[in-house]
Amino acid sequence: MLESGGKSQPKPMDPGLADLGPNPNMFAIRAGRGNIWVVTVLEAPKSALHGPEVWPLGVKAYHALGELGLIPEKTELLYGQIYRKMPKSPYHRLLLMRLLELLQRIVPPGLHVQPEQPIQCGDSEPEPDLSVIRGSINDYAAEHPRTAELVIEICVSSHDYDRSKLRAYAEAGVKECWLVLGPERQIEVHRRPQGGQFAEHAVHGPGGSLTSPTLPSFTVDLAELFQSPVAQ
């Protein structure tokens, strides 16, 4: 939770952070011109290990730090921790553009395709390569979507990292999630979110076609999707 102002003069802890005394989960961030933003972080995880503790960020704190320029660009918030996004290869971009073109052709009114845009999933805010969201564009003027009909993550060298997002997507009620495995020329489909995980899991390919149960008009020919362009 963010509140502007402050009741007491904070004692500096860091160049922009201040301790708010008795509440260990509250920090103040100096924003210039005397303004102080009060940021609530998530409860620190209880651990039997002794040593440095990890203090996860909430989504609002993540946004506030980003607006102040204290978080680098091209990051994602996953389970209260900030991760720098991996650089994308030309092959990754090729797969993304092919799928984006297919989706834009078939998405009916009331649904929208968004590439690399945030979805708020509890204490996470991943930015999937592609997502199909429901509603009007104006529905998301004040906050990011909190779920999606379909999410697609393209995995060329990021398989483990992208699989780690599945719990966040399931908790947000995303109906269907595809992991497009570039080197394997396969697509993993995860469906029916229940209790923080997907109840159904199937692997398609190499070869053949795949139709989305959530978007029945969306069919992908796997051989064409993964085909290498012919050199001119």
Topology at a glance:
Blueprint lengths: L2 E2 L6 E4 L2 E3 L6 E5 L5 E5 L18 H9 L7 E4 L2 E4 L5 H17 L4 E5 L14 E5 L15 E6 L3 H5 L2 H6 L4 E6 L4 E9 L2 E8 L4 E3 L7 E3 H4 L7
Parallel strand pairs: 10-11
Antiparallel strand pairs: 1-5, 2-3, 3-4, 4-5, 6-7, 8-9, 9-10, 11-12, 12-13, 14-15
Would you mind describing this structure in some detail?
This protein has helices at residues 59-67, 90-106, 159-163, 166-171, 222-225, and strands at residues 3-4, 11-14, 17-19, 26-30, 36-40, 75-78, 81-84, 111-115, 130-134, 150-155, 176-181, 186-194, 197-204, 209-211, 219-221. By secondary structure, it is of the alpha+beta class. A hairpin with a 6-residue loop joins strand 3 (17-19) and strand 4 (26-30). The longest helix has 17 residues, at 90-106. The strands form four sheets. It has a six-stranded mixed sheet with strand order 8-9-10-11-12-13. Strands 1-5-4-3-2 form a five-stranded antiparallel sheet, with helices on one face. It contains five helices and 15 strands. The chain is globular and about 50 Å long. The chain folds into two domains: 3-71, no CATH class; 90-225, Alpha-Beta Complex (tt1808, chain A), CATH 3.90.1570.
